[in-house]
Specification:
Elements: E1 2-9, H1 13-29, E2 33-40, H2 47-57, E3 61-66, H3 72-82, E4 87-90, H4 101-110, E5 115-120, H5 127-143, E6 152-159, H6 160-168, H7 176-183, E7 187-192, H8 206-220, H9 223-253, H10 260-293, E8 300-303, H11 308-318
Helix pairs in contact: 1-2, 9-10
Bound molecules: uridine-5'-diphosphate (UDP) and magnesium ion.
The site of magnesium ion has 5 residues, from loops.
């Protein structure tokens, strides 16, 4: 069995080497056949030189390098589509995903699980961040049709079948957490203690996280649109009732001076609702716009292997 390990890297020059040392030590201990695929996501530091050096020194290391930063989702997709293994493990390059879990993951893969998920607790995370994410997952699971679990990220093993299913989803806006859940398959979850990043910085700012959160809601369902329809209908209905009662009142009591306050509040409320839902509709139109362009998910500047086929061949000639 060949195990592919896919590692997205963005400005990880301080971590690449220790990641390699640490991970391969564990992989070698278990006598796995493996390949490491690093994806340089347009780093502005020397990540690419570190990767080149690794892949020149070690046969089992290959890399793909993007022409600019395309984001982690694209980096993962590139690595996954190049992976030639019977099973693939997705890992961060900052050692926050403990490689010690790999043997366990493979164990459950051998037991027939198609997705083996590593779930972290939030030990060591800032309180604000962990409570916000708790709230986020609570809300998300009310809204979204696929189930998302707090602490479950991209660290997981996928069988070839699960991987092919994942790769067959070729939407432009990728929200992996949702996609993993969407493809289904028998899954097993392993718990582990959160690891705090040692070198380099997290690429997530609060703003980025917020946008990621919105992506999650929008790309996974059309419930926000549905809500807008229901709310719009209710507001219209209430409006009709109001008009009717006013008409009856006018019929019996005659016209009184319309209140400035009521007028303004009506304008504000209706205006606000309209703007909100216009925004939601706009979001979806934006998605359609991006999807309809059918742009590639990433542009490769250079790579150490030319095709997936070649990796397969390389593996088969070695086996
Ligand atoms: N990453 C990437 N492209 C990006 C941002 C991040 O490939 O635009 C990689 C990064 O190098 C790391 C992983 O994705 O290996 C997770 O990123 P980070 O550690 O910043 O996220 P966090 O662990 O804080 O959620
Ligand atoms: Mg990290």
């Amino acid at each position: 069995m060949l195990l592919s390990v896919v590692v997205p890297c963005f400005n990880e020059e301080k971590n690449v080497h220790s990641f390699y040392e640490y991970t391969t030590k564990i992989l070698a201990m278990e006598n796995f056949n493996y390949e490491l695929i690093f994806v340089n996501d347009g780093s502005s530091d020397n990540t690419i030189d570190c990767l080149k050096e690794l892949s020149e020194t070690y046969e089992e290391v290959s890399y793909i390098s993007f022409s600019r930063n395309f984001g982690k989702e694209s980096a993962m997709l590139a690595g996954l589509s190049y992976a030639g293994g019977d099973a693939v493990i997705l890992m961060d390059g900052d050692l926050q995903h403990p490689p010690e879990l790999i043997p366990q993951m493979v164990h459950y893969y051998n037991l027939g699980y198609h997705q083996v998920i590593a779930k972290r607790n939030r030990k060591g995370d800032a309180l604000v961040k962990s409570s916000l994410s708790k709230l986020y997952y609570k809300l998300m699971n009310k809204f979204v049709d696929v189930s998302l679990v707090n602490g479950v990220g991209d660290f997981r093993l996928l069988s070839r079948k699960a991987l092919n299913a994942l790769l067959s989803l070729n939407e432009y806006n990728r929200f992996s957490k949702g996609l993993f859940s969407w493809i289904g398959f028998k899954e097993y979850t392993i718990n582990y203690d959160n690891v705090v990043r040692e070198e380099g910085e997290s690429k997530w700012t609060l703003g980025k996280l917020f946008n990621y959160g919105i992506d999650g809601v929008i790309s996974f369902n059309n419930k926000p649109l549905r809500i807008s329809i229901y709310m719009g209908l209710s507001v219209t209905l209430l409006g009709f009732i109001y008009i009717l009662t006013m008409l009856i009142k006018i019929w019996f009591a005659g016209i009184d001076v319309p209140g400035y306050f009521t007028l303004i509040s009506a304008v504000l409320i209706i205006g606000g609702l309209q703007l909100t839902f216009l925004g939601i509709v706009g979001e979806y139109i934006g998605r359609i716009y991006y999807e309809s362009k059918k742009r590639p998910h990433y542009v490769i500047e250079e790579e150490s292997l030319t095709s997936k086929h070649e990796i397969h061949q390389k593996w088969h000639t070695h086996a």
